[in-house]
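for the writeup, i need someone to sanity check this before i put it in the appendix. the sequnce is what the collaborator sent (i think, or maybe the updated version? ugh). structure was predicted straight from it, no edits. if anything looks off just tell me and ill rerun, i have time this weekend
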Amino acid sequence: MIYTGSMTYYRIHTADIAYITQQPRGLFTAIGKLVDAKTLTEEETAEYWKNREYFEKVLPVPPFYGQGNPDHAITWFKDTPQGNDIYHQMTFYRTMAKKYGLKLFVSKCMELPGEVIYEDDFQIAVKNQNPSARITTNELDKIEILDFSEQEDKEYWISKIKESDWRAAKYLVELLESGDFYTHCGEASKLFLLVENLDLISFCTYAEKDEISDTELTPWIGFVYTFPQFRSKRRIGMLMEHIYRLAKKEGKKAIYISTDQPGLYENFGFTFMEKLKNRWNEETLVYKLPIVSMDYSGLFDKR
């Protein structure tokens, strides 16, 4: 049955254009080309065939490949547990691409990217790619900071925020989906995302207002969250450094953060300032990071 509901589809590929499909060459095929060209060592070639045998067992091979792909179809993974599990197992292929200088990209599409001619639990295959489909492409294996407001695939990143079990993250999603984000946080406020490939690592806001209504303090870092699998690496420090530099460029004198966790943000250069009441009349701890003419990159450990 062809899936027509809300779904994200993605491809891992190189910049090279495949002859048959006239689309960027997929990762499986790209490494196969290196094997054909005898680029890999004997040990790597043996490992390639072990991996290929494995994936041909666990990932269904669309039948049109046995017919020479007459429709020039291309496959897209589904952003589902099954599809993502296959992607995360493709470490050998990504390692070979990196070793032999193949730059990889991930393309995402939040609608059917073309006419579906095959589907299983992991993937779809399409022909006649829809030229109006919204496809976003980014370099793979690169940690980067995204401004949510500038992203075409906002629905995708909202779906990733939804994967958090944190109550405040659910409230942030409500603000984004209802269009009330700027009313709540201020017109100049921003939501920053720390991402790697398809993964959302951390997120936080840089906002004119936060959960404390009765104050003239501004700007605030808020909605600070790192997904559990990425914790203990101080990745949120990358977002905080980014916000620090932005606030410094804007001529701000300090950045503030409200929390119920004493001692946490001292690790990032903040100092305790005072206790205030939030909009729910709960006591919260307010911390301050002065902005001065010095390089704070040593404080915000990126590792």
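The chain has eight helices and 14 strands. The CA atoms of residues 149 and 190 lie 7 Å apart.
thx in advance!!
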